[in-house]
Protein 1
Amino acid sequence: MSREGAVILVAGSPDNYPLEYYDRGSGTYQGVVPRLLSRFAEETGYDIQYYSPGEEDQRAHLARNRQVDLISACSEDERFLHTQGEPIEILTVERGGETVTYQLWLTQAAPSALRQELSDFMAGVGQQQTAGLLVDAAAGRAPVPRWQESLTAGLGIAAALLAVIAVLLARACLRQRRRGKKDRETDPLTGLGNERFLRSRYLSVISEESRVLYTAVYFYADAEQLEKVRGPQDKEEMLRRTAAVLRRYAGEHDVLARVADAGFLLLRRTAGGEELRQWLSMAQASLDEVCRELRMCRVTAGLYALRERDWELDDVLARSGQAAAQAAREGKPYLEYTDAMHSRVQEEKRFCAELPRALERGEFLLYIQFYVDAGSLAVAGGEALARWQHPEKGFLTPWRFIPVFERADLIDRLDFYMLERCADFLDRLHGHVQTGFFLSCNLSRKTFAAEDFPDRCRRLLEGRRFARDLLVLELTGGADADGDRIRRNARQMQDMGLRVLLDDFGKDLTSFAELAGFPADGVKLNRGLVAGAETPRGKALLDSIIRIGHDLDLAVLADGVENRAQSDILRRLCCDAMQGYAFFRPLPEWEARRQLLEAGERNER
Ligand code: C2E
Ligand code: CA
């Protein structure tokens, strides 16, 4: 297509003989690049002009002020603000033993069709033509160096010929190098760019001023369950297909990369608002289709609109990633990063930093909520629940800090602290009343799955007086962990005489699958099941689950029993023990001990 008359202004490199240089004699730019550009002008009809000829390198200044469309003859390590997209390669030479590629950058002022036209043109320029141009350029007037007026044209020709040879030699080497670079910047599984690729593009493609036009969209592809049930190849399939969908939805000015095992970042050039929401909902509809087909996986997104001062890619990744993870936790398709999220992240970091001090100073308190025997309704045991008496934030319940420590892989520190407190509690009761009183301690799956878990427990129990079967380990339903190791460790715990209870039982289907080969002594019904006890279907479900438990020789405990009706139904269905506000609220350990001792004395009388 002819661009007759459209002026393209070029910022040239004044001192890059024989590629591009300012010839003071003629007051023009000379060399290979101007020649190539003039051929390009002949083919397309553009009017290519070099900007205000001069000896100073003004390229950065001209780019910043958007006074030119093209910045010319840049080596790979030169970067300019206010450019757009990828640079276009012109040619490659060897200099000082290094292979250097020269490129053209388009500024934000360049007409939109120029990129394609220039790329097509450069791709069509063969190696011999380039070499010929180099000879021509050198055979013409060599520049007069500022430091030595007497350089001969002969020297110029010799330099050019050397450069020609170098070009020919360098081509093969460059191809190899470029392949290496591409490999280093490519994610082998999905074929998308990787984090390294993203980093190089973040600096070059997104300028300080254009940054506000971008929104970082982090896609969190959660295939953990899929991998657990159907294996790693299904997870990989899911990631490949997610990448393919995202590639389809990435626009010309966007940057897309796989930045984590389950994370993709798409830097989206967008007007924001409704336009972004519509684009995202279409992209998510396509992703949902993939997830529906593969099942047991989903993709959530986190949005973070870039601000002018967001230089640090790490912050952009953290914020958008945080929003995507939060969306996954809340079961929402996407969430925008907010300042509240920022405060939460700060709080999480703070909690993690404070944990060692809090343990040392005994800020974590042991609370105990009693279980009652379903037959006699007498206290049968208790569950240990952590509370944090935080010096500034006050009295905190576990929902506020347990998930934080689980995410940060610090939960074992608190779990072992609580386990020790439980052992102390049982030891102090030993020899007094209530011989059958058991205490269950919540342990995260991550704690339970650790290789040294049995040894740590063994050490903790050394010299303890209480009967081992009074200490019950409640395996909580939270964080995911290695199932095989949990089973092995559970068996070792039983060998040591402790009992193992599966908490939150019946919350999802995997707990049933787990039950088949799990060395447990009992299950604790999920609170949701108990809440549904008064409906016919809920009751039928409870009935079946309690039967399954008993058929497998497991004790069945119920959690969250809030009223008499629920308690009556559970008793009729032969549940073994119950816990809930209908009977007792969690009590501080001293109060729990006092009540136990008092009840013991009453029984003795
Ligand atoms: P969980 O194991 O399901 O513990 C029962 C939670 O339900 C407790 O909340 C308890 O206060 C509450 N609850 C008891 N009866 C009722 C009732 O009738 N109705 C309702 N709506 N709630 C009732 P809490 O103490 O806030 O504990 C929350 C969770 O934190 C626990 O859930 C447990 O999974 C976890 N947790 C507590 N302490 C620890 C610990 O030391 N380590 C670990 N890993 N997790 C802990
Ligand atoms: Ca529990």
Protein 2
Amino acid sequence: MHWDQLGNTCVIGLQWGDEGKGKVVDGLLESFDVVVRYSGGANAGHTIVIGDEKFALHQLPSGILRENMTSVIAGGSVIDPAVLIGEIEALRGRVKLGNLRISDRAQLVFPYHRQQDVLAERAALPGGRLGTTSRGIGPCYADKVSRRWGVRVCELFDEARLRERLGLIIAHKNAYLKALYELREPFDSKAITEEYLAFAEILRPFVCNTMLELHGRIEKGERVLFEGAQGTMLDIDHGTYPYVTSASAGVGGVTSGAGVPPTAIRSIVGVLKAYATRVGEGPLPTELMGETGNQLRERGQEFGTTTGRARRVGWFDAVAARYAAMFTGPTHLAMPHLDTLSGFEQLKIATGYRLGDEILNTMPAETYLLSDVEPIYETLPGWERDISLCRSVEELPEQARAYARRIGELVGAPIRMIGVGPARDQAILVEGDI
Ligand code: GDP
Ligand code: IMO
Ligand code: MG
């Protein structure tokens, strides 16, 4: 299938985030009219390289950089207005902000969420740390689900109500954080209310019922691309719990977050980096700790887009990828970072895990077991030459083609795009077999 015929499409990371979704989305956008971020928040960091410029987007959809594209932040998202407005300000004059739409139903992140995130991590017992992005994501989603403490974007525009609610909520938060974590400086509800009322005026022109907006546009025949954040192995239900984020990072998150039925989605592009990375705590069964790991990290420039933390790296994990593909159902795969593997004499792919006398072929519910597994590897020959200038499958060394082909086979979906560098044009579209 040609990219132009994808129909409404979601782009979803099939690993632990940072697969290169931003670049894949950017490459596809030419064929779309609307781009939607539907879950997560400022924990995401999507990098787009255009010419000499590099953009790191956290809250804004990657389509914001294109002039004729409507960019939507839908209701399943958690929005930190300080981060969002910072991004808007940084891009003002360079992009058409009139194209931005923000859901009136999205939840708001407040300073006490960020603080709770940091304090909970600091207070965690050994082994209990999650290694979050400190963006307040978990506490904000927890407040949403509690139904008592969540504040939605629409509430920013009812001043009397906002004052009253924040007064009650912040009194509760101060008591809670003091009792649990010995919070030193209580939050000042009046100051926070004033700050958020000021944010409201900046955001007001963009806020609407994005679900209605999306349905209207789909009915008119506009093409919608849903930009996934995080990765399916960080999914709250199916990921490596508790070392996950607080949202549905799979396709379920698209329908619930954006408010569209599954039948509105025609294609699912699963993004699989050519090796494994993870930032934060939690198991990474194929992790490379020594010199090979350092080489991979340096060559791939694996440092977090949101927190700057060094990403953990490892060989490609086909057990995790196959599991992720099972509940995501990719119709196409995109594989960024094949170029990063140039120069390794041999490459390994994990096809199972050994746990004592047992062999695991899929992810266990007991995430803690993953720290004791030993990956069973298939070894493939590497290739020497730099492939960053290749623009067709035929130009790639046979070993690189065989490596990508094998991953497609193991995951059970066709690879339709290969990344050979961070720039917009460093991509190979795959029409047939690799
Ligand atoms: P995302 O969160 O999935 O959008 O990924 P990030 O932007 O956090 O991290 C991906 C990193 O890899 C960014 O620095 C990209 O510029 C870079 N990148 C994307 N595709 C490729 C590729 O094919 N090759 C190389 N070398 N870098 C890539
Ligand atoms: P993008 O969209 C990589 C990870 C954090 C931590 C765990 C929980 O750029 O791929 P949270 O702050 O969400 O409570 O952290 O999830 N994490 C990500 N890792 N890429 C992301 O987003 C991530 N978003 C969250 O590092 O391990
Ligand atoms: Mg990222």
